[in-house]
Amino acid sequence: MSEKSEKIKNFDPNGVGLKNGHFIGLPFEEADASIVLVSVPWDVTVSYSAGTSTGPANILQASAQLDLFDADVPNAWKSGIYMRPSDGKILESNNQLRELAKSYIDFLENGSNLAENESMKMNLEAVNEGCENLKKWVYEQTSELLDAGKLVGLVGGEHSTPLGYLEALSERHKSFGILQIDAHMDLREAYEGFTYSHASIFYNALKIKNLKQLTQVGFRDCCEEEVRLAHHDARVSVFYDWTLKEEKFVGKTWEKICKKIVKTLPEKVYISFDIDGLLPNLCPNTGTPVPGGLTFEEAVYLLKTVLKSGRKIIGFDLCETGGEGNEWDGNVGARVLYKLANLMAASHHLNK
């Protein structure tokens, strides 16, 4: 019997939630887990409220009280999930650069002229260099795991964090699409001067040649530049939150809407889940909350529709969960994260 099989045999999924430092108190270590969750404690470029850098730690702490039964994925926990704790050096770098970024953002919001201030130019350069280093770190971490045969989920932090992971996936998949659940389009070019801004993640992702489709769902806060880009790039399909609501108001079922959304996606799908795509009462301490959004059940049904369609989930991220001290945000985030991991496992038939 393998070490993993032994752990499954000796673990009681009906017992007390263990505070053993593992996601949902599961018994697995990284070596025997099929799915590894990489924590990326980063919120350097957030333009409204900071704090999501400790979102991964908040999720990990809150997960201890979750129950393991998943009605959609039998024996889900047996696939083996391990969540890496946040890296202290990355968090330290984040905290230092966040102070520079905040000073710079305040400078811009006061209408000051960057060309006339060398100190702020240096702040911007330092932040951009730090974000470039973070992207490389994420690429290296996720590449190593993919090479080891692991399925990978990324847990932010702000929404800029998955770019290095998407680049790693593009080296292993000739064609894939992204399903993005979000309140924002994140299609701005170098927002506020930050090359890897949280608001620029999908502007940057569209530069990845093997990315063939970006399907955006739940958007209700965007600028004209983003709308223009989305409507002129044939790879982008947009399902605005107000359109989804209007379709429901006139009697269209969520089932039909979800099938229409999923139909735009190719065989291989990456799911990018910004938690502010949900109703704000489910994520009150996210970085940039916006009225409107999906219910928890609507989001899960959409994800299940991806699985039922026969598409393969090759990876995912969950970003922008409120940080430590916000237990409810961590609670909801942990449940979304578990569902994402379970559905990815099911799409690879790991729950059999």
Which descriptors apply to this entry?
352 residues; alpha/beta; 14% strand
Overview of the structural elements:
- It is a single chain.
- With 352 residues, the protein is of the alpha/beta class.
- It has 11 helices and 8 strands.
- It has helices spanning 3-10, 55-62, 88-109, 118-147, 163-170, 201-205, 224-232, 241-249, 254-263, 296-308, 327-347; strands at residues 35-40, 81-83, 151-156, 176-181, 211-219, 236-240, 268-274, 312-319.
- An 8-stranded parallel β-sheet has the order 2-1-3-8-7-4-5-6, sandwiched between helices.
- Helix 3 runs antiparallel to helix 4 (118-147) and helix 4 (118-147) packs across helix 5 (163-170).
- The longest helix is centred in the middle third of the chain and has 30 residues, at 118-147.
- The radius of gyration is 20 Å and the shape is globular.
- The chain starts with a helix and ends in a 5-residue tail after the last helix.
- The model has no long low-confidence stretch (mean pLDDT 96).
Q: Helices, strands, pairings?
A:
Layout: H1 3-10, E1 35-40, H2 55-62, E2 81-83, H3 88-109, H4 118-147, E3 151-156, H5 163-170, E4 176-181, H6 201-205, E5 211-219, H7 224-232, E6 236-240, H8 241-249, H9 254-263, E7 268-274, H10 296-308, E8 312-319, H11 327-347
Parallel strand pairs: 1-2, 1-3, 3-8, 4-5, 4-7, 5-6, 7-8
Helix pairs in contact: 2-11, 3-4, 4-5, 9-10, 10-11
